Structures are given as structure tokens and as C-alpha cells.
Amino acid sequence: MMLKSKMKNISIILYKPKYAGNVGSVARVAKNMGIGNIIIVGTSGFDCEEMQQRSTHLAADVLDKIRYCKNIEDALGKFNYIVGTTARLGKGRGPFISPRTAANDIVNISQKNKVALLFGPEDTGLANDQLRLCHSVVTIPTSREFTSLNLSHAVMILCYEIFIASSEATNTQEVAPTLARSQELEGMYAQIKTLLADIGFLNPENPDYWMMHLRRFFTRAGILSREVKIVRGICRQLKWYAHYKKT
Question: How far apart are the two ends of the chain, measured CA to CA in Å?
């Protein structure tokens, strides 16, 4: 028995795309690979005719269902697993995995979780502030002479790998459980950050340094909703105790 990706649980998130033609092309490749959900963050008012021309009439249903969000936190809030993409490398942006590795993970995770594939603006890509929201970060291997990919090409490569991984997967591996949603995790991280700042653990000049490592730790652990509640309960108790000792 084959374990296929649940394409209905996978969405493409375009963060501040600049060109209507690229949005149309993304809709076309999404349709090619069986993905019907696209969310656009931070920009709207694209030329509908240009999007339709680039998507072709066969992907009109994908265009019609596009959802627009003002900020990235709202767009990602209900997703359980977020895959960011980048061509720019750096210690604070990874660790990085290949599209194929990501695809194999997504086949399993998408069974019980909402998965977001996050792509940045055509000219700059995703910044660190967006990548910190991601559970994993994909970089697509290219020639060193020209590393930049067209937005729709990058989308196609990742979606193709998911499609192929789905057709080759089996049900021999245990299905990943339902993970905590992004908005739950962000609430937890904010609470941890406040607590660690209050007790002087974080460097006030660079508080996100240790938070980046904590985010990676919890991502590796695959934290569940009930575990988020436990961590937040511990944070509340520690904050109360620290205040009690001061008084």
C-alpha cells in the first residue's frame, strides 16, 4: 500500500511577490503537481488578466481560490509544519535540506498536518525574520555561476519532488502525529523569551541568538499542542516564582 502525500493539506505561501505573471505561473505549476491552495502575503491588487494568461484556463480554479493575508503570522498561524526556501546561506538561516529530503518528510507529515511551502520575494527571497518561523529550510542546488531561480521554477522543483516522493513512498514508516500549530508555537516562544529576559539569561543586545537555538531544539522534538501547554504552564510558574522570590 502506498503512502501518498495529502495534497489537500499542502499550501503554497508567496510572501510579498512582485509580479502578477509569476503568481499566474505558480498557480499553473501548483495545478500540475496536484496542489490547489495558494496564499499571498503582504501584496494584492495584481493584474488578473496577466495572472490568467500565465496560469492558463486549466488552473483558473487555483487562481480563484487564492487567499490574501496582510501579515505572515496570520498566513502561517494554522499550519503545523512550515518549509521555508532560500538561495542565501548563512549560519543563522539554516540548517538546510535538499528539496528531495524535504519532500520525503512532507509525505509523512502531511498525513495529519497542514503543511506550508513558503517562498519569498523574487528580488530578495526570505529574510531571517521569516525563516525563523519555519520548521525546515530548503535550498535548491544550482550552478555557482547563477544561483537565482525564477519564483515559479523554485515552486515547481519543490512541488515536483513532493509529487515524486508521494508516488514512491510506502506505509512502512510510522505516520507523524499532529503537531502544534504555528500560532501556538509563536505564543510559546514569546513567553519563553520574556521569561528568559526577565531572569537575565538572554543578552539584551542579541536576545534572538539563544531563541534561535531553542526554536531548532523544539523543531527537532516535533512538539505537540499538549506539550506546548505544558511548557507554557512551566513558564507561568517560573515567572510567578521569580516574582515571589523578589518580593
Answer: 63
